[in-house]
Every structure is written in structure tokens, then in C-alpha cells.
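sry for the spam today, last one i promise. C-alpha cells for design, 263 residues
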């Protein structure tokens, strides 16, 4: 049985991970860490007396052998990576909008423990990324625009997934970071050939919707992935947890997980 400690356990993804783990026979959420747990005594059980223990301090609830899953904040991601490196614990990190310090801290942790870092743990989004590479090769002269939609509570924009799609597109085209344009307003002039448009919509309860539009002369092609519920991400997280539980130290991606063929 793989014991999970979920940092950000009271959040949307934390709850989805716990629900998905309940249906898996080989994983269990042993503890949850979240600021809202401060009203409970460190390490206390749920009010019903069962289920995972709760706390607001990862160092106080984590144990040897745990796999830590983190969906919190940039500061939380950095703090979690440091504790995992110190305690020798595998880490699955999914927080988006990380600053340079958090990214550096996660890379440093990966020199000591196995770390999977991804902006999106959906297997469908992985397929979208691979399809993107194929279409970019087939349509070298076409314009590329990316549109992403998320719920009104999402705190970063563009989404980490949209940024990764844009990064892959410009890398395939051999373009620099300056070719990514976040939205348009006013008299922008004609669209340059070397440009990737990136547009963010926020509202309602969209879980996650990413579309890549390729526009040619007289025709267009669209690749689109829509997440209907957070279970799409949670099941990918569980696959990642199984992978890091047995992996050697290093920084891995969801591609590494899928290529093992493990369910």
C-alpha cells in the first residue's frame, strides 16, 4: 500500500485526489496538509475519527515511506520540495505559476529524491501535446493561437498547460520567448508570421479547456481538450505517485510515467 500525504488537501485537487485514491486498492491518503487544518490539533484525525490525519505543517505529519503529493501555492511547492529532499521522500508536484525560486528548489530536490513535475496530469492533455507536435510538423506555415478557459477562482493566467503548449510550439518553430503574445488590444497591426497568440478566459466553473487553433489560407484545424471533472487529473496523479514510489532520484515528467505502461 502506497501512503500519500497531500499538501493542499482541502483544495479542489486535494479533494479529487482523495476521492480517486479511495477507489484504488493500492493507494491511501494517510495525511492531508492545508492551512485550513490549523483549526485542528496537529496530526488530529477527521471529526468522524477515521480517514487521514490533518495538519498545517508537513514536517509534523510526514513519515518515512510516504509519497508527498503537492497542489498548493508557489511558496508551498518550494517548502514541500525542501522537506521532501531533507526526509528522502518522493514528490509529485502540480502547482502552476511557480516563480524562479520555486522552480529552482524543485530541481534541487530532484537531485536527492524522485520528483514528478507537471502543469497538467491529464492523460488526454498528454495526447494533445503529442498531437500538437505532429500537426506543427504537417502545417509549418500556419498561424498558431491558443485559447484556455478555467473557473473564476483560478489565480494564475495563462494556465501552466497553455504556457507549455506555447513553449512546445515555439520550440518546434525555432522561435524565442518574445514571439508569445498574451492577448491583443488596440491597434496591434497585422499579425506577424512569427507569433503565437495566447488567450485566457476566466469565469463560472470551467474545470479546464485548452484549444490550439492552426489557421491557414481558407482553412483551419483545431486541437482541443476539455476536462469534465478533476478526476481526469487525479487519476494521472495516482499513476505518478506509483511511479515515484519506485523511481530513482531525478526530475521526471508525465511522459516518463506513461512510457512505463503501468496503469
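last one done:
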Amino acid at each position: 500500500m502506497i501512503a500519500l500525504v497531500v499538501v493542499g488537501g482541502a483544495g479542489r485537487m486535494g479533494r479529487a485526489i482523495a476521492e480517486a485514491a479511495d477507489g484504488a486498492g493500492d493507494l491511501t491518503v494517510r495525511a492531508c496538509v492545508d492551512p485550513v487544518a490549523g483549526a485542528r490539533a496537529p496530526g488530529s484525525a477527521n471529526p468522524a475519527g477515521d480517514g487521514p490525519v490533518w495538519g498545517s505543517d508537513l514536517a509534523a505529519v510526514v513519515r518515512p515511506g510516504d509519497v508527498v503529493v503537492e497542489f498548493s501555492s508557489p511558496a508551498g511547492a518550494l517548502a514541500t520540495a525542501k522537506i521532501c529532499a531533507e526526509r528522502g521522500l518522493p514528490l509529485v508536484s502540480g502547482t502552476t505559476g511557480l516563480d524562479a525560486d520555486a522552480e529552482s528548489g524543485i530541481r534541487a530536490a530532484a537531485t536527492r529524491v524522485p520528483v514528478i513535475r507537471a502543469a497538467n496530469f491529464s492523460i488526454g492533455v498528454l495526447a494533445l501535446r503529442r498531437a500538437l507536435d505532429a500537426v506543427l510538423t504537417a502545417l509549418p506555415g500556419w498561424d498558431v493561437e491558443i485559447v484556455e478557459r478555467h473557473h473564476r477562482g483560478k489565480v494564475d493566467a495563462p494556465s501552466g498547460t497553455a504556457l507549455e503548449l506555447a513553449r512546445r510550439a515555439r520550440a518546434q518553430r525555432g522561435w524565442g520567448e518574445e514571439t508569445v503574445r498574451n492577448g491583443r488590444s488596440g491597434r496591434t497591426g497585422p499579425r506577424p508570421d512569427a507569433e503565437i497568440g495566447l488567450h485566457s478566459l476566466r469565469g463560472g466553473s470551467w474545470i479546464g479547456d485548452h484549444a490550439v487553433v492552426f489557421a491557414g489560407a481558407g482553412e483551419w484545424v483545431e486541437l482541443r481538450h476539455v476536462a469534465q471533472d478533476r478526476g481526469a487529473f487525479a487519476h494521472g496523479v495516482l499513476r505518478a505517485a506509483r511511479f515515484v514510489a519506485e523511481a530513482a532520484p531525478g526530475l521526471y515528467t508525465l511522459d516518463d510515467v506513461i512510457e512505463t505502461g503501468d496503469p
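The longest strand covers residues 208-216. ok im logging off now
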